[in-house]
Amino acid sequence: MKAFMTNGTIDFLQKLDDNHPDKRIWIMRSNSGALAYYEDKKKSIFASGREYDIIIENGKIQEEGYVVMNNIPVTEEGQPVFEDRFKNRKHDVEMMPGFQAFRLLKPKKGNTYIVFTQWRSVQDFDNWKNSDAFKKSHKGQSSGKPPAYFADQPFLTTYHMVTEE
């Protein structure tokens, strides 16, 4: 399965969604704009967008919620180690109240993986970030020194789902 994303205004992305009733496209907004996301086995419907392989998929993306995307640039030689770390991790995040969906997305172009999580609310995500389970799953990363396989500094992008009115 693949994931596809593109950015634009909410109006533009809504028209894309309207033009493809056979696809389940989720539209999300942030302080810096909007994003359309969908999953499929076929090629992208977006003229200019990003394509990812879904490496790990847990939960179902919901109509409403708060999406956090941890964008992590990974060196080419570090990709197997990075993916293994996620495949062998404990699934504590899925047990947290408010958890809705998880995806590990590998880019078709470039080196920036996305760790996609969806939560019922910002508060549910904050509760995860402040939990002992989070601290355990991110042990060793708080030292300030990123893992050797990071090609650059990771960064978060956050979105609120746009529901049709």
From TrEMBL:
<dbReference type="InterPro" id="IPR011008">
    <property type="entry name" value="Dimeric_a/b-barrel"/>
</dbReference>
<dbReference type="InterPro" id="IPR050404">
    <property type="entry name" value="Heme-degrading_MO"/>
</dbReference>
<protein>
    <recommendedName>
        <fullName>ABM domain-containing protein</fullName>
    </recommendedName>
</protein>
<feature type="domain" description="ABM">
    <location>
        <begin position="66"/>
        <end position="161"/>
    </location>
</feature>
<dbReference type="InterPro" id="IPR007138">
    <property type="entry name" value="ABM_dom"/>
</dbReference>
<dbReference type="Pfam" id="PF03992">
    <property type="entry name" value="ABM"/>
</dbReference>
